[in-house]
Design goal:
Layout: E1 17-22, H1 24-33, E2 35-40, H2 54-64, H3 68-77, E3 81-88, H4 94-100, E4 107-112, H5 113-119, E5 129-132, E6 134-136, E7 154-156, E8 164-170, E9 181-185, H6 188-191, E10 194-197, H7 203-215, E11 221-224
Parallel strand pairs: 6-7, 10-11
Antiparallel strand pairs: 1-3, 1-4, 2-3, 2-9, 3-8, 4-10, 5-8
Helix pairs in contact: 2-3
């Protein structure tokens, strides 16, 4: 279930458009299970994920001198926080197609902040928060650590192009161990407003996606991305 968090910043407008770029197998898994996969935060490629900037780390080190458990707690927390990443943008992104899909195959889910919030209402076991990622200079800027979620809502400035919005959950109270991540129940019809198919995909691929979605009983709109539409001279 989605829970509002006073310290986590979100766009004011619930109609703010967000995207998730993924391959067909992950998309099918989402539809068949009606569950959204959330990755363990220390499994992302970015090794800084869930860590602190240098000024913050120095302060935590001082606090840990007489209390070594303090630092150990923050390190172990990365295994207990799970994240689903979305890209905030009014339009689809050429860069995101290149980064997150391969071989001219793949698709993009278009949704909104408000839809994400409603889609999470069916999950009863875990609480989810949604927040915008802040992009900072890890050598100079300070990440507050008075809230457990803050390390997971800051990234280095070089990732700014991601314009990331995160669904985030803390499972530390559940006394469970997870390997790569966790699946949470979602209302697929709320989660997905529209599907865009890879701009360089073949027609058979578009037909395949339309047929699969129809056979699984979903009725959302499916379009081919227009990033590769015919050039008019």
């Amino acid at each position: 279930m989605y829970v509002h968090h006073p310290n986590i910043k979100l766009p004011d407008d619930p109609d703010t458009v967000v995207w998730k770029y993924l391959d067909l197998s992950k998309f099918l898994d989402l539809l068949l299970s009606q569950q959204l996969f959330m990755s363990r935060s220390d499994k992302f490629e970015d090794q800084y994920e869930g860590t602190f900037s240098e000024p913050t780390y120095e302060e935590i080190k001082k606090l840990s001198e007489n209390n070594p458990e303090f630092l150990a707690h923050y390190k172990s927390q990365r295994e207990k926080v799970v994240v689903s990443s979305w890209h905030s943008n009014e339009y689809e992104s050429f860069a995101m197609w290149q980064i997150f899909t391969q071989n001219s195959e793949g698709l993009a889910i278009q949704s909104t902040i408000g839809r994400l919030q409603k889609a999470l209402a069916v999950e009863q076991n875990f609480e989810q928060y949604i927040g915008e990622v802040n992009y900072i200079d890890y050598k100079k800027e300070y990440i507050p650590f008075n809230d457990m979620f803050f390390p997971f809502l800051f990234k280095r400035k070089s990732f700014q192009y991601e314009r990331e919005v995160r669904i985030i959950s803390d499972i530390s109270s559940k006394n469970m161990k997870i390997n790569d991540g966790l699946k949470i129940d979602v209302d697929i019809n709320q989660l997905i407003e529209k599907i865009y198919i890879h701009p360089k995909s073949e027609n058979w691929y578009k037909k395949l996606v339309i047929e699969l979605v129809s056979k699984l009983g979903f009725g959302f709109e499916i379009e081919k991305s227009d990033l590769e539409s015919d050039i008019l001279i």
